[in-house]
Amino acid sequence: MLAYGEPNAEENWQRLRIAWPDARLITGVAGIQAGYRACAQQATAPYFFVIDGDNYLLDAGIFRSRLRPRSNELLMWCARNPINGLAYGHGGIKLFPTDLMRRPEPARDIDISTSVAARSRLIRRLASEHRFATDAFRTWTTAFRESVKLARDAARGHQASAAGALLAVWCSKGAEHPLGDYCMAGADAGRAHVALHGADGPALGQINDRVWLRQRFNADFPGEALVAD
To answer: Which domain of life is it from (predicted)?
Structure first.
């Protein structure tokens, strides 16, 4: 498990340990790519799984899967979104080739998780629930970042129909959840960010800038107390 301050990481870690006692916990590594590399350094097999700290395991059977990525490929399993009900690769468990991640190339895209490998493949099996909605800031940030990626893909024509459909759900569903309004607001803001800056604008890289995200959230919700990140 790769954790970086998620409030529910300990609960999710204990669940993972029960299901898979050989699992290891990596904490406090700043940066997505650096975190993956830290996992690879501790891996003892040709491949290793990564489950994020805010991910609640549903199907431990995937760890017995015979699926293996190619030397330059990432495998992802579906994760369920507890706010809007979507289930796809966002926030899902990943399987990396160890050698690839011990010497990772610089990320080529704002979507760092999928761009560290030359190819990514989605396994359409529900393996976890992405429990990112632990507070207003984390909920808004997760929705903003994902919606920027989806809006960018839709604008570029890259699987535009699928990306547009996912984006529409992010922006419109979840009002009944206690933090659903923050999720939809973050998604709307992400969509507007791409509309303002363009699908290839350098400002899209701001989704990986924690300081900028905090400032943007404060601007939209000045009455909200920031949490430690």
So the answer is: Bacteria
